[in-house]
Amino acid sequence: MRISDLALAAATPLSAVKYYQREGLIFEGVRSSPNQVEYDDSHVQRVRLIRALIETGGLSIAATAEVIRAIDTPGAPPAETFRVAQHAMSTPRTAESIPSTRSRECVHLLARRRGWCISDDNPGLDAAARALDGLYAIDFDAPDSYLDAYADAAASAADADLNALTTRSGADEVAELMVVGTALGDPLFAGLRRLAQQHATTSLFPHTNANGTPS
Questions:
Q1: Are residues 81 and 138 in the same domain?
Q2: Residue 196 is part of which domain span?
Q3: Percent of the chain, pLDDT > 90?
Q4: Is the pLDDT of residue 197 over 70?
Q5: pLDDT at 146 (0 to 100)
Q6: What phi-psi label fits residue 191: left (phi over 0), alpha (psi between -120 and 50 degrees) or beta?
Q7: 22 with 85, same domain?
Q8: Which site in 19, 73, 159, 165 is 20 to 30 Å from 174, CA atoms measured?
């Protein structure tokens, strides 16, 4: 297919496809004549991935290029691609506070207690530590039972994320779900948590009408 057909198949403006090409994000097609380059379904998948990284993941062109390089590195394990994608997507768009040593150590202890294999530069450490700092600010010292409940839910969600990857074939397809799932998993988790909170609140603090009957 020609580049115009590629853009149509990927449901992406031709100008955007040409821009991705100039930035080196799309691998070369097959030159069939001096003025003609042919593309195939692998290029369509690559354009979809780039759009997922930029539009859903909110990555810059530079960060997108970093993830693409990880995907295209021969023999790179999926864990490395995931690491690169996580770091790229966790780059703060605005200045963020530095979490306290106390909170960061608390998150480290939680991870060690659960036997999690994590790196010290995982962006989740500071994100969780900042959340604990916020709880400390209102004088709530989260007990182990509270943190373990969140860790249980996070572990279940992570298992679902990784199991979902086994349903895709091809590096680009895996990376696409990896990135989109990471970007959309947070609001999905938050939305379901709010629904569950309403249910739990209704069960724990049932509302009654003026006549004393449950509503």
A1: yes
A2: 76-90+110-206
A3: 39
A4: yes
A5: 95
A6: alpha
A7: no
A8: 19
How much is the average pLDDT of 64-87?
80
Taking Cα atoms as reference points, which of 83, 87, 147 lies closest to residue 112? 147
Of the candidates 14, 1, 4, 10, the one whose C-alpha atom is nearest the C-alpha of residue 44 is: 10
Query: Do 115 and 198 share a domain, yes or no?
Result: yes
Phi, psi dihedrals of residue 174, rounded to the nearest 5°: -65, -45
Angle at CA of residue 77, ends 75 and 78, nearest 5° = 130
Q: Cα–Cα distance between 111 and 108 in angstroms, integer?
A: 5
In SS3 terms, 32-56 reads as EECCEEECCHHHHHHHHHHHHHHHH
Residues contacting 10, CB < 8 A, separation 6+: 17, 44, 47, 48, 51
Q: What is the CATH number of the domain that holds 20?
A: 1.10.1660.10
Interval 126-139: pLDDT, tens: 989 999 999 998 89
Residue type at 55? E
Q: Outline where the chain has alpha helix (H).
A: 3-9, 14-22, 41-51, 61-72, 78-89, 101-113, 123-137, 144-165, 171-204
